Amino acid sequence: MPSPLKYFCVLICLMMQAQVLSAQGKKLTAGSDTSFWYRDMLKNVAKLNLPNLKQSATGHQWRMWFDGQVTSYVLIIHPAESQLILYTQEYEDPLTGQPSNRIFVKAYALSRLQAKGIDSLKEAYGIDQIPTDEQIKGWGDIMGLDGVTYLMEKTDDTTYSFKHYWTPSAIKTDEAKKMTGFIAATEQLIGYQHFDTDFMKSIPFLSYFTGGPLLGMKALPRKEARRLRKARKAYLKSHPEISK
Q: Between β-strands 27-28 and 159-166, what pairing exists: parallel, antiparallel or unpaired?
């Protein structure tokens, strides 16, 4: 007769298999976007070593991505752990023009009270009911080359939602006004400006950007600038494939 331990191991394997199958078979919700933006977001998911919500058995989770001009963030609300992650990437050296693939990331933990507050704001503004901007008349057809982008993901055991919103503050639709209000209230609730100030001071690059048209540069004392260039040089020396 099989031992109880063997039964237990078989049960665990079946449960893990069910989770994987559930993740692979997640249904895309109505109002979602399947455009270029999803593929572009996956690059940042990989850079930040985050789970692919569409394919992972992560349970209930919500993420909001902000693609700024020189720094970006992803806000993660999860029952077990919620956090704000800010990130940027190094631009080419101002003196030599040599590129780099270095990314600076800093995570800030959020309290359960803040996470619950964001959930309440989402409900109050009806965020989950707002479709991706391409499906909203007067929004999806006004997208410009500059501005900022917000991406929102939501997942549970069986469904996945992905939505894109270009510069809601520049759009006059009711949906855009709700989104603008929600973003402002959320950033105020978590004290985003405090985190952003701390992050900007911590960036160990002389120049940095997130892939957009603008570039951030630090005006530093000569000694500090030399220290950062020395660290960059050491990194490039240990990664010779970058300069090829």
A: parallel
CA–CA gap between residue 222 and residue 206 (Å, rounded): 11
Nearest by Cα to 243 from 4, 12, 235:
235
Q: What is the dihedral of CA 71, 53, 115, 209, to 10 degrees?
A: 0
- Report yes or no on whether pTM surpasses 0.90: no
Q: Which two structure tokens, joined as six digits, stand for 240? A: 């010779």
Q: Which amino acid is at 230?
A: K
Map 195-226 to HEC letters.
HHHHHHHHCCCCEEECCCCCCEECCCCHHHHH
pLDDT tens digits, 161-208: 999 999 999 999 999 999 999 999 999 999 999 999 999 999 999 888
Task: Tell me how far apart the alpha carbons of residues 212 and 24 are, in angstroms, rounded to a whole number.
Answer: 33
Q: How far is it, in rounded angstroms, from Cα 169 to Cα 10? A: 53
pLDDT band at 33 (very low <50, low <70, confident <90, very high): confident
CA–CA distance, 11 with 17 (Å, rounded to integer) = 10
Instruction: Name the token pair of 81.
Output: 């752990």
